[in-house]
């Protein structure tokens, strides 16, 4: 094998290893209205009409990742504009987290002691805008399905209610009690409002025991808006 062929073979092998270590996330819009899906740090953003699916590949080692839906957006030909909920600095292709309120699918891929575990959750800490399901889509992990489909917007406490969504108490009050800045906090009446309606989703920052799920690395996933 000559040096050029050997180099090409090495590049191809590295490509295959990269693909093999990535998790596929199929993001589907089952809502009867358009949503603008967002994914950070991998993916960016995409308009999804009802029934459309957007697959993204997430490399092993990705952490602090989020997927969410934006609603009532308007973008120009350059991909700049705004959304009523979940806006990410006015960009169609998000580069930063979205503005509350937004129902979040949060995850890290390959974060165990031996890079052998994925961590996944749904969070309402930043509030709620669109019903969501976040589940495994692989025989490697068949028993993980997180849902938050309650009428949170319709039942939202007045002080948290905004057009198109229901804010979390942390973005509204910005206090240690609700945001856990010091690392120590307990459930509040506002966090219980979310927990009572979506018991498998994060309702406040220390809600790990009932809201954090794991799958073996190599699992693929689906995130469904309006399941």
Summarize this structure briefly.
The chain is α+β, with helices and mostly antiparallel strands and 227 residues long. It contains 6 helices and 14 strands.
Description:
- With 227 residues, the protein is α+β, with helices and mostly antiparallel strands.
- The protein has one domain: Thaumatin (Sandwich), CATH 2.60.110.
- Helices cover 19% and strands 33% of the residues.
- The chain contains six helices and 14 strands.
- Strands 2, 3, 5, 6, 7, 8 and 13 form a seven-stranded antiparallel β-sheet that branches. The protein has a five-stranded mixed β-sheet with strand order 4-1-14-9-10, with no helix packed on it. The chain has a two-stranded antiparallel sheet with strand order 11-12.
- About 6% of the residues have low confidence.
- This is Thaumatin-like protein.
- Belongs to the thaumatin family.
Task: Describe the protein's topology.
Layout: H1 3-20, E1 23-29, E2 35-40, E3 44-48, E4 53-58, E5 65-75, E6 81-85, E7 104-108, E8 117-123, E9 132-136, E10 145-148, H2 152-155, E11 161-162, E12 165-166, H3 169-173, H4 176-179, H5 189-197, H6 208-211, E13 213-216, E14 221-225
Number of helices: 6
Count of β-strands: 14
Main β sheet profile: 7 strands, antiparallel
Tell me the name of the CATH homologous superfamily: Thaumatin
CATH architecture: Sandwich
Mean pLDDT: 92
Structural class: alpha+beta
Order of helices and strands: HEEEEEEEEEEHEEHHHHEE
CATH hierarchy, class: Mainly Beta
Q: What overall geometry do the principal axes of the alpha carbons give?
A: globular
The termini sit apart by: 53 Å
- In terms of DSSP E residues, the strand content is 25-35%
Relative helix content: 10-25%
Uncertain segments = 7-20
Gyration radius, rounded = 19 Å
Family: Belongs to the thaumatin family.
Protein name: Thaumatin-like protein
Keywords: Disulfide bond, Signal
Signal peptide: 1-22
